[in-house]
Amino acid sequence: MDWTLIAIISALFSALASIIEKKILFKERVAEFTAFLALINLILVIPFFLSIESIPSTTGLLVLFFKSLLNAIAFFCVMKAIKSLELSSALPLLVLTPGLVAIFASIFLKESLMLWQIVGLILLIIGTYALQIRKKQKFLDPFKILFKTKGYRYVITALLLFTITSILDKTILKVFKFPVNTFMAFQHLFFAIIFIAILFIFIKPKKIQVPSKSSWILLIILAIFTIIYRYAELTAMSMAPVALVLVLKRLSVLFSTIVGGKLFKESHLLLKTIATIIIIAGALLIILT
């Protein structure tokens, strides 16, 4: 199967997963939600463990654990953001990752920005501004909201972590030569360990709430969708450059914004959709230049 089709499949299931996550988080707390989801995911990847032909190197597993830790924290932050913000407000900001990579490379690696990358960064700024702009605001208010609102601070933290983990994904697949099945198996084992630890850090054992029956059904569906989109994304990354895979993966944000926004009757949806398109266009210019 062509990697582009695999990446599009990943984007579609990622978008569906985001909508289900928001639905569950109306009722459940983030700590329990992430822990129980991680346990269900671990059960679903048992077949991947059975297909492992050789145990990876200790160094490779340590890098994967570190990457999984960063990914888990980023995912936890995204879920906190989704719970407190509208889906159409939180998710589009995750597309800013290529912009951060370009800026960091310019500052720390002394890489010069090309003209189209600069245009892409400008579009990211315009899109981010448009995402927050409302009537009767002062000029800088949209940017102040990003740093003063707790939900947006979670998104910014996740952005920084995803910038690192997107690079580590490719490193683990190519440098340490992890087969996708092995990657999936150990990553979800590490996720389960990390999210259970987070659960007990944030909530005392006696106060842990088991999800409701309706949430369990959605959790199982979400877990299936999550395994599908993660497996598809890793498979596409093993076949093509990370940047190109991420271009198609970003389409999930537009789908989530439109469908999720309609489903949950979120505010200013047309403006947010236009802002999301501008942000994605900026990301594409940066990635493809």
Explain what this protein looks like in three dimensions.
This protein has 14 helices and no strands. With 289 residues, it is mainly alpha-helical. The protein has one domain (3-288). The two termini are 26 Å apart.
Q: Can you give the helix content as a percent range?
A: over 70%
Q: Residue-averaged pLDDT, rounded?
A: 88
Label the overall shape: globular
Distance linking N and C termini: 26 Å
Strand residue percentage: under 5%
* Strand tally: 0
Poorly predicted regions are none
- Helical run tally: 14
Our Rg estimate from Cα atoms comes to 19 Å
Q: Give the domain tally.
A: 1
- SS class: mainly alpha
Helix-strand pattern: HHHHHHHHHHHHHH
Q: Characterize the biggest β-sheet.
A: none
How is the secondary structure organized here?
Blueprint: H1 3-25, H2 30-44, H3 46-50, H4 58-84, H5 87-90, H6 97-108, H7 115-132, H8 141-148, H9 150-174, H10 180-202, H11 213-239, H12 242-249, H13 251-263, H14 269-288
Helix pairs in contact: 1-11, 1-12, 1-13, 2-10, 2-11, 4-9, 4-10, 6-9, 6-14, 7-8, 7-14, 8-9, 13-14
